[in-house]
Design goal:
Blueprint: H1 2-24, E1 27-29, H2 42-46, E2 51-52, E3 56-60, E4 69-71, H3 73-78, E5 92-96, E6 101-106, E7 119-125
Parallel strand pairs: 1-3, 2-7
Antiparallel strand pairs: 3-5, 4-6, 6-7
Length: 130
């Protein structure tokens, strides 16, 4: 009986330690198959998704065609482009969200943010522990 309860405890420890690490971080391809592009409804894409601290946002786009800036709410609403040295420009930008709250991202190329909808706003929550 004692060895059986030890086996059960070992299984519970594995579930308790391994499972949360598997479910903690999610990688979101922003825009799914469309990627980071013009004329895409990022508000609709984000709706219903739960973004958690530790998740990764992956912005995929052709290098040179777009970029990604992390901005504040004002920058998001008015498409205010930060200094160029703050841009993500690899075409496969992976941004890990490290804190809870609202996060805003825009494209700084031309009028992509202001006229073509290349802007993403998400709310990040703390991981839920049972």
């Amino acid at each position: 009986m004692a060895s059986n309860s030890k086996q059960v405890l070992a299984v519970l420890v594995v579930i308790g330690v391994v499972l949360p690490s598997l479910t903690l971080a999610t990688e979101f391809i922003v825009g799914d198959d469309s990627g980071w592009n013009t004329n895409f409804d990022y508000k609709a894409w984000a709706k219903g998704k739960v973004f958690t601290v530790g998740d990764k946002l992956v912005f995929k786009y052709p290098v040179g065609k777009h970029n990604v800036f992390k901005v504040n709410g004002t920058g998001f609403h008015h498409c205010i482009i930060p200094p160029a040295n703050e841009a993500f420009t690899t075409g496969n930008d992976i941004i890990t969200v490290l804190t809870p709250g609202k996060k805003w991202y825009i494209c700084g190329v031309g009028k992509h943010c202001a006229k073509l909808g290349m802007k993403l706003a998400i709310r990040v929550v703390l991981p839920h522990h049972h």
